[in-house]
C-alpha cells in the first residue's frame, strides 16, 4: 500500500476545502463563497484501494493586513514542508491575475517550496465553463511555474478527481499507512463545532460581515448521546453584533438552529447549543484572543 501527503494551496475561494471534502468523502472543512473562510490548517485523510492520502487544506494565500492574516499565510506556506505533493489550485473561469501571480511567486520563490517537492497545478471549477475555454487558461498558467502535472478538475462534482488521485499516488512511495481505516480528520468535535457555527454565521450574514467574525467554544460537555455546547460569536463593532442577532433575535436563532442540526447529524446524537454575540474591537490583531481561538498554534 502507498501513503502520501498532499498540501492544497492557492488564493482564497478557489475551492481548496471543497476538494478536500470531496476526496475524504465527508465534510471536514467548512465552505462558503466568501474569501478567507479557511483560517487554519485542516487534515483530512482519504482512503483508496491504492492506499491513504493525507490532505492538508490551507488558508488562502493573500497579502496580509492583520495579525490573523499573517498567521493564516504562514500556516499555508508551512504546510509545504509536510507534503509529498503540493497542489496549487486556481479558478478555471479566470486568466491569471495579480492574486494568482502572488501565490505562484510565493510557491516558487527561493524561500518557497522545499527542493524537489513536486508541484501540481489544479485548474478547478471546469464544470462552470465550456471545455473550449479551459485550454487557454491552462496555457496562460503553464509558463508561470515548474508544474509537474496540470490537472483540470471540478472539486464540486468530482470531475477528473480520480485522475488527480492516480497522479498523486504515482508520486508517493510504498509505505505503511499512517492512520486507522476509519480515521478522517484530526479536528476535534469542539473545533468542528466552532467552525460549523462560523459557517452558519457567514451563510446568514453573507457580504455584511466578510471577515469580522470568529467563534470560540466556551463550554463543551458530552453526556452519552447528548452534547451541550456554549459558544461566543465575536465581532468588531456594535453594529455588527446587531446584524448577527437580527430583529428580535431571529437571525441568531436561525444560525443556532442550522448549526445545531448539522452538528447533531455529524455527531449522531442530540445537541443543545447556546450562543452569545460579543463585541471585541480589533480582535484580528489581539494575540491573546487569537491564541484562545486556536489561530496562533498551528501544527
Radius of gyration: 20 Å
CATH architecture of the largest domain: 3-Layer(aba) Sandwich
CATH superfamily of the largest domain: P-loop containing nucleotide triphosphate hydrolases
Our count of domains comes out at 2
Shape: globular
- Oligomeric grouping of the chains: single chain
> Helix fraction?
25-40%
End-to-end gap: 26 Å
Strand content: 15-25%
The total of beta strands comes to 9
Annotated CATH topology of the largest domain:
Rossmann fold
Major sheet characteristics:
6 strands, mixed
Mean pLDDT level? 89
Global structural class: alpha/beta
- Count up the helices: 9
Runs with pLDDT <50, length 5+?
none
Query: What is the topology, as strand order, of the major beta sheet?
Result: 2-3-1-4-5-6
State the CATH class of the largest domain: Alpha Beta
Summarize it.
This protein has 299 residues and is of the alpha/beta class. It is 34% helix and 23% strand.
Structure notes:
Helices cover 34% and strands 23% of the residues. The longest helix is centred in the last third of the chain and has 18 residues. It folds into two domains: 170 residues, P-loop containing nucleotide triphosphate hydrolases (Rossmann fold); 105 residues, 2-Layer Sandwich (GMP Synthetase, Chain A, domain 3). The protein is α/β, with parallel strands linked by helices and 299 residues long. It is globular. Strand 5, helix 4 and strand 6 form a beta-alpha-beta unit. Helix 6 packs antiparallel against helix 8. The relative contact order is 0.15.
Amino acid at each position: 500500500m502507498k501513503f502520501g501527503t498532499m498540501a492544497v494551496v492557492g488564493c482564497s475561494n478557489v475551492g481548496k476545502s471543497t476538494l478536500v471534502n470531496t476526496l475524504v468523502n465527508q465534510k471536514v472543512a467548512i465552505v462558503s463563497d466568501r474569501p478567507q473562510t479557511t483560517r487554519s490548517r485542516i487534515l483530512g485523510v482519504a482512503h483508496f484501494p491504492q492506499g491513504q492520502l493525507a490532505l492538508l487544506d490551507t488558508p488562502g494565500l493573500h497579502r496580509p493586513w492583520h495579525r490573523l492574516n499573517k498567521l493564516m499565510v504562514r500556516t499555508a506556506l508551512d504546510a509545504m514542508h509536510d507534503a509529498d505533493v503540493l497542489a496549487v489550485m486556481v479558478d478555471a473561469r479566470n486568466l491569471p491575475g495579480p492574486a494568482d501571480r502572488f501565490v505562484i511567486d510565493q510557491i516558487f520563490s527561493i524561500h518557497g517550496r522545499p527542493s524537489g517537492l513536486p508541484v501540481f497545478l489544479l485548474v478547478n471549477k471546469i464544470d462552470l465553463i465550456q471545455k473550449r475555454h479551459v485550454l487557454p487558461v491552462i496555457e496562460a498558467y503553464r509558463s508561470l511555474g515548474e508544474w509537474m502535472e496540470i490537472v483540470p478538475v471540478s472539486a464540486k462534482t468530482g470531475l477528473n478527481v480520480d485522475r488527480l488521485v492516480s497522479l498523486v499516488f504515482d508520486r508517493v512511495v510504498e509505505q505503511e499507512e499512517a492512520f486507522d481505516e476509519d480515521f478522517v480528520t484530526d479536528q476535534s468535535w469542539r473545533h468542528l463545532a466552532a467552525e460549523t457555527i462560523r459557517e452558519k454565521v457567514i451563510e446568514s450574514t453573507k457580504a455584511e460581515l466578510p471577515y469580522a467574525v470568529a467563534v470560540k467554544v466556551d463550554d463543551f460537555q458530552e453526556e452519552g448521546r447528548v452534547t451541550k455546547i456554549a459558544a461566543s460569536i465575536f465581532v468588531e463593532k456594535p453594529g455588527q453584533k446587531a446584524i448577527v442577532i437580527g430583529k428580535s433575535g431571529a437571525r441568531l436563532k436561525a444560525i443556532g438552529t442550522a448549526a445545531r442540526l448539522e452538528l447533531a447529524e455529524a455527531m449522531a446524537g442530540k445537541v443543545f447549543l447556546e450562543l452569545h454575540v460579543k463585541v471585541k474591537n480589533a480582535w484580528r490583531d489581539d494575540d491573546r484572543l487569537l491564541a484562545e481561538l486556536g489561530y496562533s498554534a498551528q501544527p
